[in-house]
Design a protein that fits this description.
- The complex is a heterotrimer of chains A (805), B (165) and C (287).
- With 805 residues, chain A is an alpha+beta fold.
- Helix content of chain A is 29%, strand content 25%.
- In chain A, the strands form ten sheets. A seven-stranded mixed beta sheet of chain A has the order 3-7-1-16-13-14-15, with helices on both faces. A five-stranded mixed beta sheet of chain A has the order 11-19-18-17-12. A four-stranded mixed beta sheet of chain A has the order 22-32-33-34, with helices on both faces.
- In chain A, helix 15 packs parallel to helix 16 and helix 16 crosses helix 17.
- By secondary structure, chain B is an alpha+beta fold.
- Chain B has two domains: 78 residues, Beta-grasp domain (Ubiquitin-like (UB roll)); 68 residues, DNA polymerase, domain 1, CATH 1.10.150.
- Chain B has six helices and five strands.
- In chain B, a hairpin with a 2-residue loop joins strand 1 and strand 2.
- The N and C termini of chain B lie far apart (33 Å).
- In chain B, 66% of the residues are buried.
- Chain C has three domains: 46 residues, Uridine Diphospho-n-acetylenolpyruvylglucosamine Reductase, domain 2 (2-Layer Sandwich), CATH 3.30.43.10; 114 residues, Uridine Diphospho-n-acetylenolpyruvylglucosamine Reductase, domain 3, CATH 3.30.465.10; 103 residues, 2-Layer Sandwich (Enolase-like, domain 1).
- Chain C is built from twelve helices and 14 strands.
- The chains are: A alpha+beta (805), B alpha+beta (165), C alpha+beta (287).
- Chains A and B meet through helix 2 and helix 18 of A and helix 1, helix 2, helix 3, helix 4 and helix 5 of B.
């Protein structure tokens, strides 16, 4: 038998860079996933909410007597029951409080008013109908631009007299915070001296992440042991445990939080919601497990929203297209409570990435947050914190500048992209971009789609349109984005004071089989597959012999969870670091076994071998056995390590996207002819999974750009909160995706990886928006607001006189 | 609450139960029979996560009462896996082609694709996209789901065998 | 989402169904495919005390020719319409429309009778029935009678059906051989109701429109039969001016609601655009 070559041994590991099939799929394709609602504990009760039909109203009385009389109903909780426990409000991640059950007022439609607990789902739903609430409707504020009018209704009476918020002075009773970054004076001066300026109000509509599985939990309190176990749809289970302990006063070691399989998150499942608190209280009160499962309408209207950012962007430039300054003022609609899921010091997330991929000498950004009669939230829906807003803002603004300068949008970008030699690049708004090769990426994208030919075709089609030979307009969308992910370094990133590190713990059993646990939590990203690939490459043990566990706070090391594309930059790094600790010990054991100095050994795929004598080696598998049977004198047995990784910086994935659309001017229907996405996420762990993430993110970007909106009417009602109206595209509407990549490793990440899950949303949204806008550019239109659904696109054409007979 | 005796064949096994008239088929399958493969996603018949096969038709079990299925033969994702545990070509295809991520839509998607291939063993890409348009996926963007169905169609060579029926 | 409790009834014959419905009066609703009614019940926007399931009545099934008419049992599903060779050959517009309704799963259970009888202005089949001059067989406590589709729709969810009556069959006079037809539906996505839709059936005589009928979907609180629009085209060769007159006549009778599909003015315009496109396709088909 010949010894396998080094290449064969590498392949058999199924490590970094290979298209390893997913281990989790074995259970999912058989319907054997384990999601929250699949959990059945004996004696489980079911909770269901009584919700406000009004957007703003005073509660004059609640009569639950009929509901309580219904057979099967155990109890009905109201704010009056929670108040003695000090649980009628809960703290938010943003330094505000949010009502668990409304006390005196409701502040948005479908806000939680009472929690019914019954023997089964059906009885609970019936009882909800029987709770009588007496409301006195109040005037509503749904337009954020009217929130700070002098005579605007006071929304948050609980904040009366509080002139200081979590982030400084409040200017108005509906004002939450003001936040600014950059050099205001230098920016203003650059605008004064500018040869060319543009200014546009760019609004990013309110949307919702809408994972296919809604938010849900099962809470079970063991009265004898005084222990609480909560299974739930948690993207950040450890943080949920800490918060649960702090709120409930149950010691943290007696709180067991478990996130089982999660049916998609996209930011929806980061926060804590009233349903979780009420289920916990109900379990403590009844001594029985209590299950709470959101329905789709509840999901779309209450548990978080995303965006609702209204950005006034200005760019100053020279006539030759060289940009000289950026100024952005943002009005942020946070709804009724400030429950934004950002790192605590970042009330506007990382919106100061708004200079994007361009070399702005100076910039200034300011953000004001306001309260309105809408649901709280402000989550990062498939993006790092407020990065998709920033990317949409700068990418639209660059197109508007190109239009004013009569330049091609790609050429304007080429002129102003940060150059390869400028990395690490210090942006005008305070970030240090780790690595990039932007020009190469954009050029490759332009070559791949035949960009110049497309522009020629567009001109021909435009001429045909003007000649009355077609009713279609062609649009080409160009977007270049820079993501900022992997929150984050402890010097500036924390959640309620806890540093945003993440963790990995690896234990090698005597036979060389491995169990590893991380502080993150997959919701479809395939962590069970990819973390094993990192370990396989680092330790030379086959990925198939490695089991990955996440989500059980009793067994996994503490971590901050999965969102903001942080798993690979943080826990992925921790995994590599923990593996390297193990390898260091393994080297000493190997030296002991071979009776040589450890310095005479070198690593070779899956073994340590004697330098200059490759026939003399010990495989990792042999070393694993020795770790439990024959360690060097003075060394402890065992082979395991834990790493808590505090990243030195964020990572900055980037990409160049180009799309082609055909707009039916007579109906407003936009057909996507082509979408090409080039992503650079640094070192690629599993190209198959990366491509899948990009397909999914692009599809969500398509949905957002072309149709998604959580729309409130002037009375504060959400119009169409079901999947009939809320746009989740089917396989028929969804475009076909072309993907490509370049690889520019992160210099500070142990394996050079940057994270990828959210890039396609960040780059995809402006790419679609730019394509639709580009179709109308020849007619003098500068900016058409999202979403680009049929009637809005038709209206844009109508406003340009394109329907004149 | 009025109840009614229902009997049906589920994944080849005869089942009898007394159910409340309003019991939704999805709750009957999940809560009474412990078949937690089919899921609830939208509640209003738009997402298809609850899709099961009923007498040779793909149906959304969240928008049907258990009493309506009285006497029917039902196949869920659990019945698509072979009795000996072997995976169906569609199940293989979804894994091979990375046709799933969070896995929540997958049981409904595979169950629907199963019926699609029964009716059209050699579908074009457009026919697959149209055929699965009653099933929403939030993760994959469908491109790899299409490939997964194509993989299965090819592997079966048009000789799809009815499972557990 | 969970519906309120109700009593379930499963009659085996039309007579039994009608008797049960008559007996229970307003408290009962017939259940066909259920994909309009059950979501409404789950949202608790509908709460019938009794559901009378028509799904087991053999006489409500089937597609047959009767003289110059095609008669379709009310419980015939959209999937069965799609699969029918007879429909494909004689009434291609019915197949085309069925394929534009909802999604595959819904079409396996959604029925023609349910689609035409529940009075939802968003349903696609009623406008097609107006266009084709269909007649509904109605059975109730007083026996059977026939109602022209063009007399059936009175408002949103308001029809000529009296309490206790059900539609048992849909009778469609066969359009002449060589007719052209089309159903053009603008929607946001699969599974959506129409923003606006137009059904056209026409015949040509040496390039001149001999007969024409037009139905419009979801641009008023009931389906519309656009009689004046059709008249404006008869005798023309569908020249631009004639089509323009027809569009104006069609737009004039619309009164759509503003909703997430777009404001009323847009939906009216879309009715016109769908009409233009349906006319063009029908004309290309006609021999």
């Amino acid at each position: 038998m010949t010894e396998p070559t080094s290449e064969q041994r590498t392949q058999s590991l199924q490590g970094l860079g290979c298209k390893r099939k997913r281990t989790e799929d074995i259970r999912f394709v058989q319907g054997k996933g384990n999601y929250v609602d699949d959990l059945k504990l004996p004696g489980t009760l079911y909770g269901d909410f009584v919700r406000s039909p009004y957007g703003h109203a005073r509660i004059k009385g609640i009569d639950a007597s009929k509901a309580k009389a219904l057979p099967g109903v155990i109890a009905v909780l109201t704010a009056a029951d929670l108040k003695p426990l000090n649980l009628h409000y809960m703290p938010t991640l943003a330094g505000d409080v949010a009502a668990v059950l409304a006390e005196d007022k409701v502040l948005y439609q479908n806000q939680e008013v009472a929690f019914v607990i019954a023997e089964d789902r059906y009885a609970a739903a019936d009882a909800v109908e029987l709770v009588e609430v007496d409301y006195e409707p109040l005037p509503v504020v749904v337009d954020p631009f009217k929130a700070m009018a002098p005579d605007a209704p006071v929304l948050r009476e609980d904040l009366a007299g509080k002139t200081d918020g979590a982030h400084g002075k409040r200017k108005h009773h509906n004002h939450i915070f003001a936040w600014e970054m950059g050099d205001r004076g230098a920016t203003d001066q650059a605008f004064t001296q500018a040869e060319v300026t543009i200014k546009e109000l760019i609004s990013y509509q309110r949307v919702h992440p809408c994972p296919l599985e809604t938010c849900q939990c099962v809470a079970s309190f063991d009265k004898v042991k005084g222990e609480l176990t909560v299974w739930g749809t948690f993207q950040a289970p450890h943080v949920i445990r800490t918060v649960a302990s702090l709120i409930s006063k149950i010691p943290e070691h007696k709180v067991h939080v478990i996130a089982p399989d999660i049916g998609g998150g996209f930011g929806n499942k980061v926060g804590a919601y009233p349903g979780y608190i009420c289920a916990v209280v109900a379990s403590i009160v009844t001594g029985r497990p209590v299950k709470w499962v959101e329905d789709r309408t509840e999901n779309l209207t209450t548990t978080s929203f995303a965006r609702d950012y209204h950005m006034t962007a200005e760019i100053a430039a020279n006539r030759d297209g060289r940009i000289t300054a950026l100024r952005v003022n943002v009005l942020a609609d946070h709804g009724a409570f400030d429950a934004c899921a950002d790192p605590s010091k970042w009330p506007a997330g990382f919106f100061n990435i708004v200079t994007g991929s361009y070399d702005f000498p100076v910039a200034h950004v300011s953000v004001d947050g306001v309260y309105t009669n809408k649901a709280p939230g402000g989550v990062a829906y498939r993006c790092s914190f407020r990065v998709t807003e920033a990317a949409y803002c700068i990418e639209r603004a660059m197109d508007i500048l190109a239009q004013k300068l009569e330049m091609d949008p790609a050429d304007l970008r080429m002129k102003n992209l940060i150059r390869r030699e400028q990395f690490p690049y210090h942006s005008a708004l305070g970030w240090e971009y780790d690595s990039g090769d932007y020009h190469t990426a954009l050029q490759r994208a332009m070559n791949a789609v035949g960009y110049r030919q497309l522009r020629t075709e567009q001109q021909a089609r435009l001429a045909a349109f003007r000649a009355g030979k077609t009713r279609e307009l062609m649009g080409i969308g160009v977007a270049f984005f820079t993501e900022i992910v992997g929150a984050g370094p402890s010097r500036n990133c924390d959640i309620l004071g806890i540093a945003m590190f993440d963790s990995a713990e690896i234990r090698i059993h005597p036979t060389g089989a491995v169990i590893a646990r991380m502080g993150t939590k997959s919701q479809g990203q395939g962590h069970e597959t990819t973390y094993a690939q990192i370990i396989a490459s680092e330790l030379g043990l086959p990925a198939d012999d490695i089991i990955i566990e996440e989500g059980n706070t009793d067994t996994a090391p503490y971590g901050l969870g999965t969102y903001g594309s942080r798993s690979t930059p943080t826990a992925g790094a921790a995994t590599a670091m923990a593996a390297r600790k193990i390898r260091a010990k393994a080297q000493m054991i190997a030296a002991h076994l071979l009776e040589v100095s450890e310095y005479d050994l070198e690593w070779d795929v899956d073994r340590f071998r004697l330098k200059g004598n490759p026939e003399s080696f010990k495989t990792m598998k042999e070393i694993a056995w020795a770790a439990y049977s024959n360690v060097p004198p003075g060394m402890e047995q065992g082979l395991e390590a834990v790493s808590y990784y505090d990243p030195p910086n964020m990572t900055f994935p980037f990409g160049a996207y180009i799309s082609v659309v055909d707009v039916d001017v007579d109906t407003g229907v936009v057909k996507v002819r082509r979408f090409y996405a080039l992503d650079d996420c640094g070192t690629r762990i599993n190209p198959m999974i990366i491509e899948g993430q990009i397909h999914g993110g692009l599809t969500e970007a398509f949905a957002i750009a072309m149709g998604q909106e959580i729309h409130y009417d002037e009375d504060g009602n959400v119009t169409g909160p079901s999947l009939m109206d809320y746009f989740l595209p089917t396989a028929v509407e969804t475009p076909k995706w072309e993907t490509d990549w370049t690889t520019t490793p992160s210099p500070h990440h142990p394996i050079g990886a940057k994270g990828v899950g959210e890039s396609p949303n960040v780059g995809g949204v402006p790419c679609f928006a730019n394509a639709v806008n580009d179709a109308f550019r020849a007619f003098g239109s500068t900016h058409i607001a999202m979403p680009h659904d049929n009637w809005r696109t038709w209206t844009a054409a109508d406003n340009l006189g394109l329907h004149a007979a | 609450m009025s109840k009614m005796q229902v009997s049906m064949t589920v994944n080849g096994t005869a089942v009898e139960a007394r159910v409340e008239h309003r019991t939704l088929l999805i709750h009957f399958l999940r809560d009474h029979l412990n078949l937690t493969g089919p899921h609830i996603g939208c509640d209003t018949s738009h997402c298809g996560a609850c899709t099961v096969d009923l007498d040779g038709k793909s149906v959304k079990s969240c928008t049907m009462f258990a009493v309506q299925a009285d006497g029917a033969s039902i196949l869920t994702i659990e019945g698509i896996t072979g009795a000996d545990g072997t995976l169906h070509a569609l199940q293989d295809g979804f894994r091979e082609m990375h046709g799933l991520q969070c896995g929540f839509c997958t049981p409904g998607m595979i169950t629907r694709a199963y019926r699609l291939l029964q009716e059209n063993p050699h579908p074009t890409e457009e026919e697959i996209r149209f055929g699965i348009s009653g099933n929403l996926c939030r993760c994959t963007g469908y491109q790899n789901i299409v490939k997964a169905v194509q993989y299965a169609a090819e592997k079966l060579g048009g000789k799809l065998k009815e499972a557990a029926e | 989402m969970i519906p309120a409790a109700f009593e379930y009834h499963r009659p085996r014959s039309i007579a039994e169904a009608v008797a049960v419905l008559a007996d229970l009066g307003e408290a009962a609703r017939p259940l066909a495919g259920g994909h309009s009614l059950i979501p409404m019940m789950k949202l608790r926007l509908a709460g019938p005390e009794h559901l009378v399931d028509l799904g087991r009545i053999r006489d409500l099934k089937g597609i047959r020719t009767e003289g110059g008419d095609i008669v379709i049992g009310a419980m015939t599903t959209q999937q069965e319409l799609i699969a029918s060779d007879l429909i494909a050959a004689k009434l291609p517009i019915l197949r085309e429309t069925s394929l534009l309704i909802a999604d595959p799963q819904v079409r396996y259970v959604g029925t023609l009778g349910g689609n035409v009888a529940n009075g939802d202005p968003g349903n696609d089949m009623p406008a097609v029935m107006l266009c084709l001059g269909a007649v509904y067989h109605v059975v109730g406590p007083t026996g059977e009678h026939r109602v022209a589709a063009r007399d059936f729709y009175l408002g949103a969810y308001v029809t000529a059906l009296d309490p206790g009556e059900i539609v048992t069959a849909i009778r469609i006079p066969l359009p002449p051989t060589g007719h052209g037809s089309a159903y053009e539906k603008l929607k946001r996505k699969i599974g959506d109701y129409a923003t606006a839709a137009a059904a056209v059936v026409l015949t040509l005589d040496r390039g001149v429109v001999a007969t024409c009928s037009i139905g419009l979907t979801n641009v008023a609180d009931m389906p519309l039969w656009a009689e004046d629009a059709a008249l404006a085209l008869v005798g023309t060769n569908l020249d631009t001016a004639a089509v323009k007159r027809a569009v104006a006549a069609a737009e004039a009778i619309t009164a759509p609601a503003s909703d997430n599909r777009g404001p009323a003015a847009y939906r009216t315009k879309m009715a016109g655009v769908m009409l233009i496109r349906a006319l063009a396709r029908a004309r290309a088909q006609a021999k």
